[in-house]
Design goal:
By secondary structure, the protein is mostly helical. The protein is built from six helices and no strands. Helix 1 runs antiparallel to helix 2 (48-84) and helix 2 (48-84) packs across helix 4 (111-122).
């Protein structure tokens, strides 16, 4: 690996890592919007069905957001693997530092697999919270 390509990989790693960390902030904003909608719904007597649909939409949106974050993590790991290769294994550079989106497009799953990935990320405990408790509150009260 040349010094230039290594530097490009390091720069890409730094950018992706910063973005990966920022995704957590945006996920928290989605959660805060869900809490705000629930409070608004109680304050202005919005129907439970409308509130539940809005909460479900935000929940799925966060699942989609987390899926993108997970793909970024996979790209970071691939870069780290490439940087960890020894000199003999670096003759065939299969990962170029500027091909992140091209790699994703080549490996993009089918629509059905993409939906399954979104739903599975939505069911992770860190994403489930606060949607399930908020939905229960809306249903009970």
């Amino acid at each position: 690996m040349t010094t230039v390509s290594k530097q490009l990989l390091v720069e890409q790693w730094q950018t992706l890592n910063d973005n990966h960390e920022n995704y957590e902030n945006y996920a928290l904003i989605i959660k805060l919007v869900a809490i705000t909608i629930t409070l608004f719904a109680f304050t202005f007597s919005v129907t439970s069905m409308v509130t539940l649909l809005l909460l479900a939409t935000l929940w799925l949106q966060e699942g989609i957001w987390k899926t993108f974050q997970q793909r970024t993590a996979s790209a970071i790991i691939a870069i780290e693997d490439k940087l960890a290769l020894n000199e003999l294994e670096q003759t065939n550079e299969s990962i170029k530092p500027y091909l992140f989106y091209k790699q994703w497009q080549v490996n993009r799953p089918s629509t059905k697999a993409l939906i399954v990935e979104y739903v599975s990320n939505s069911l992770k405990p860190t994403v489930l919270y606060p949607y399930i408790p908020l939905m229960l509150i809306v249903i009970i009260f």
